[in-house]
Amino acid sequence: MKIAISSGKGGTGKTFVATNVAATFSKNGKTVSYLDCDVEEPNGHLFLQPEISQEETVDILSPVRIDNERCIHCGRCAKVCNYNAIAITKDVALFFPPLCHVCGACMIVCPTDAIVEENKDIGVLKHGKSGDIAFHYALLKAGEGGMSPRLIRKVKACAGDGINIFDSPPGTACPVVETVKGADLVVLVTDPTPFGVHDLKLSVSMCRQIGQEPVVVVNRAEYRDDALKAYCARAGLEILGEIPDDRKIAEVYSVGDLVVERLPEYRKLFETLSDRMEEAAGETRAVKPVLETPSVGVSTKGTMLEQAKVSLGTEKRPKELVIISGKGGTGKTSIAGSFAALAKKTVISDCDVDASDLHLLLQPEVRERGDFSGGVVAEIDQAKCTQCGRCKEACRFGAVERIEEDGKIQYRIDPIACEGCGVCALVCKDGAVKTEDAINGQWFVSETRFGPMTHAELGMAEENSGRLVTLVRDKAADIATGQGEDRVVIDGAPGTGCPVIASVTGADYALVITEPTVSGIHDMERVLEVARYFGISSGVVVNKYDLNREMTERIKALTQEVGAEFMGTIPYDTKVTEAQMQGVSVVEYAEGPVAESIKQIWTKVNERG
Q1: Are 560 and 590 in contact (CB under 8 A)?
Q2: Which of 35, 95, 427, 565 could bridge 394 with an S-S bond, Cβ 3.0-4.6 Å?
Q3: Percent of the chain clearing pLDDT 70 (strictly above)
């Protein structure tokens, strides 16, 4: 039995639910395997604390450089690369490894064999035991964002007998799809906030599009309105359980302990929840139609422009302040919205294209919009196909399936596994593979009460979010340059994969938002490693610092050790959620310790120049 536990956004309590459910199953005598598929920011091991018995390096054959002595600068490699990983100038061929998805297209078209391939380390896979729970997880190497799905497949291959808990990445992009496809049950963890409801809608749409009918668990179930329950009722979603908004739970979580062990009053709740999950996983669940997709602005009637091409950036860019986090739910977007309010007139960019939420605070009116294409859609014409199998051999994503029915062999492309590289069309000598530009999402240029805003929406289960982030950033830079603004405030993507790499590359400063928990510290260290890898100066802010003051002091020390700046702390306050409910930033909503702390941090950021 395979149970995938996911969420539309980080910070809803996905790992909290997964670890406590796994521990409950094990205590009740079930055979349990815990597979942490959140390879960018795995946290399950911080709570289940497995004893690791085996580690293995995961590597793949990958382009590593271009031999400029062999290269004739024909440009074919750059033309076929759908990931912007190659650029050809008059004098030199440039290769950008962090953008490469290792599809092999460049190798196929190069007439002089100038593309050099070697085995490349993309991460480490670890195996161990937590009591009677078999434990498997992987850590993606910094700068290897496009390799997440490959590493996730390695983790999923470790599934065993009994109950397998897949701790999924958050969001709706390829890594999530790779995790939840094939599961017997998908559990979506959410909370009753505007951010939580918005991102739940995205996750439900993604699940239903790939043939999964999810169920819902509500964490921090303090309802300030009926939006969440009303949506679940309209969408026909089953709520398996609710977990109270209890500060004691947050305090236990902050030190890496399990609630079912530290707080006996919650054991019955998790026993009931785990029993219900097991029952639901054994049921046949009809997939309901997609009910609704949330809007990204007050009005989406803006001028529809032709599909935009990703540029390499303006020659002279404005200063870019990017606000990021190692994990979702740390308050990154709330702080970005507050900075926009404090700046009064600036250019704003929401680069969290997988699960954008900044529009919920800034209420943008869309002025321009356009389709984004980050690859191709491929289909095999069975009338032309000679069943040679070259397409299957060449596909490095396992997206070409060989199907035998009634003694006849057919090759078909799985649209969910396909990453749109177009290699199948390159190798087909019969012209049987038809391709056309994929529409992977939409970009928007909007107006807010604080100035222009660029943002986007990646399509459900789509790839190439890094290119869409680059497009959104470049549009913001172009607007700032045109209006004479010297700064762009960027709400970056969480994690360490492609979207965050595209968010921080070339930025002037990365402000990392964390929280005083074991998972917050772990993920902060990971994202600071990414910032260092790309040579980006960085600072750290601890949100909800008073949940665990000892952890806050530890974060201060770690920040100094890695050469980052400690920029301040923000206390825990329910006014942040109240501001969300009103659709405004917390500095607009109410004066108080939170607003004052954010103002002080904004002042320090400005003093850096």
Answers
A1: no
A2: 427
A3: 95
